[in-house]
User: What shape does this take?
Amino acid sequence: SLRERGRALRGGGISSVNKPVEREALQEEFTRIQKFLMGGKRSLLVVEDDMAQRESIVSLIGDADLRIVTAVDGKSALEALDASHFDCMVLDLTLPDISGFELLDQIGKKPELRDLPIVIYTAQELNRKEVTKLKKYAKTIVIKDARSPERLLDETALFLHRSHASLPELQRKMLEDIHAQDGGLAGRKVLIVDDDLRNIFALSSLLERQQMQVSFAENGRDGIEVLEKDPSIEIVLMDIMMPEMDGYDTMRAIRRIPKFKSLPIITLTAKAMKGDRDKCIAAGASDYITKPVDVAQLLSLMRVWLH
Assistant: This one.
């Protein structure tokens, strides 16, 4: 299915075919793999109109094993894609000529680019329709915040098939730091309750990379319903600021259900006010983390509560 294909590519595969496989299609994939293995330098296209951000990305990811081409707008990005093969693309959604969404639409019309891994790197607020469109084309979203450089390096290393051991010392240390606490999450079941689909998509991508089984709900009532249907869920990530039934009310309702009295719940909130943590704990939270989420801290907390 398209969903399975997307998951395989998002996990770092270079291509995907559906069974049963025609002999010609299989031969084509073997040829693709052979070219990939003998291709030498990997190629990355960075589409970013802000010069400082562009230079920062190149400095962060670049090394001798990588050819990096930059584009400042949609037109030059399409020209670069037509002129050369790329193994991965980093895209900021705010461009001077066309939007990142329009660029994705045009890329989507090119069959030869169907397997191009695209990493969205953005600080832009996204609505439900925009997130749905991004999920169609992009492999992952990295939201620009304090820890986003490490996330961007990690995601591109995956799609460029760069061995961590072969990276320069500084890059290797960055990845070692964010992966140091990642163990013990594979196969565990997590529920994300958040009304912001952008956050759901970003967190789902992150946790699926840890091989977790991810469920999600866009409001508190749906979150409780998901738990009732699947009581094997082992941990919940709960947004606080949601319409109608907020995170506090949702946690109180969950704790009133006997089988969920000890279910680990980590709250996610944009607020960092004095007393917030106590209020969360009083409502039923096991722990508390502020947005923008520190990835290493979140994974560490989850590991502790799932131990």
